[in-house]
Specification:
By secondary structure, the chain is α+β, with helices and mostly antiparallel strands. The protein has 2 domains: 2-90; 109-336, BirA Bifunctional Protein, domain 2 (2-Layer Sandwich). The chain is built from 12 helices and 9 strands. It has helices at residues 2-18, 22-33, 38-44, 54-91, 109-123, 137-140, 173-181, 222-237, 290-295, 312-319, 327-330, 333-336, and strands spanning 127-128, 134-136, 165-167, 186-195, 207-217, 243-250, 253-262, 279-288, 304-311. The radius of gyration is 45 Å and the shape is rod-shaped. The structure holds phenylalanine. The site of phenylalanine has 11 residues, from strand 8 and strand 9. Phenylalanine (PHE) binds at residues 170, 172, 212, 250, 253, 284-286, 307-309.
Length: 339
């Protein structure tokens, strides 16, 4: 019986040591130490032994049992540690891998320039107002002191949609709508799309953008106009920018001016951008014609005002050195991604 025990123990030890996983270990535990296990079977045979040998044999079996239990415990925790290590290795995250990026949308260059302009004028106390793109002849021309037979109509080739309807040729139409609905003091800008039947080329597009400005109050003079526009030019182009006012003509302003800024590309020396002149024309402006104030129910004896219309597209192409205005409207991703 003693020899038998030794054999069983030796077999058990070698089987436990070579076990590959926890399941196998558990099977071995049942095989040797379980209720119907081989060591238990030996204990059951003890009855047939000599009474004097029983305690000795009992002790041997118990020792064998204990050492197998210890070995099983040790092997189990070894296997567990190994399994954990393997699992961790398999689940390792490589934090140096580049992440999946989702591209955030970007502002169109026209919109980022527009946002800057709105910031500048809002900081000077202007409100932003909106006007319809499909206008009536009355708001786009008639009320702006351009009657039907007036030669000034030729200044703007118009898309007519019907007898009295047209695509607005200038945001100036919004001046009238504002003066009809607000009482002075008025200080608004109206940005938006305008349309003219121009041939398309690198500097002309049948649709482009203007920002109309209008100020009406008591005692407004040409000095206020100059101050506001100079401030605007300095904020957009930098403090050293020179501003030049040239006499001009618009039917709805008197006197009228066109405003040039010193070329931001060459600083005024003359280059390709300013076509050698050193200046870039950016807007038209003037003191609101008394007749326009009158037709909107504002007494020109009591109030005066100025208006200006800025070309947003020209401002954008010069700021970003864009050589062809058509790029602004084609929505080519390769172009837009650069901003
Ligand atoms: N509406 C004019 C244009 O489109 C610009 C302008 C606006 C001039 C306001 C004077 C005052 O040419």
């Amino acid at each position: 019986m003693k020899e038998n025990l030794e054999v069983i123990k030796a077999q058990a030890i070698s089987a436990i040591e070579t076990a590959a996983d926890e399941k196998e270990i558990e099977e071995l535990r049942v095989k040797y130490l379980g209720k119907k296990g081989e060591l238990t079977a030996i204990l059951k045979q003890m009855g047939s032994l000599d009474p004097a040998e029983r305690p000795i044999m009992g002790q041997l079996v118990n020792e064998a049992k204990q050492s197998l239990e210890e070995l099983i415990g040790k092997k189990k925790s070894e296997l567990l540690a190994k399994a954990t290590e393997l699992k961790l290795k398999a689940e390792t995250i490589d934090i140096t891998m580049p992440a999946k990026t989702s591209k955030p949308g970007k502002l169109h260059p026209l919109n980022s320039v527009l946002d800057d302009m709105i910031d500048i004028f809002q900081s000077m106390g202007f409100d932003v107002v909106d006007g319809p793109e499909v206008e009536t002849d009355y708001y786009n021309f008639e009320c702006l002191n351009v009657p039907a037979d007036h030669p000034a109509r030729d200044m703007q080739d118009t898309f007519y949609l019907g007898e009295n309807l047209l695509l607005r040729t200038q945001t100036s139409a919004a001046q009238i709508r504002t003066m009809e609905t607000r009482k002075p003091p008025i200080r608004v800008i109206c940005p938006g799309r305008v349309y003219r039947a121009d041939e398309v080329d690198a500097t002309h597009s049948p649709v482009f953008h203007q920002i109309e400005g209008l100020v009406v109050d008591k005692g407004i003079t040409m000095c206020d106009l100059k101050g506001v526009l100079e401030q605007f030019a300095h904020e957009i182009y930098g403090k050293d920018t020179k501003v030049k006012f040239r006499p001009s003509f618009f039917p709805f302003t008197e006197p009228s001016v066109e405003v040039d800024v010193s070329c931001s590309e060459c600083g005024g020396k003359g280059c390709r951008v300013c076509k050698g002149s050193g200046w870039i024309e950016i807007l038209g402006a003037g003191m609101v014609h008394p007749r326009v104030l009158e037709s909107c129910g504002i007494d020109p004896e009591e109030y005066s005002g100025f208006a200006f219309g800025i070309g947003l597209d020209r401002l954008t192409t010069t700021r970003y050195k864009i050589s062809d205005i058509r790029l602004l409207f084609e929505n080519d991703k390769r172009f837009l991604e650069q901003f």
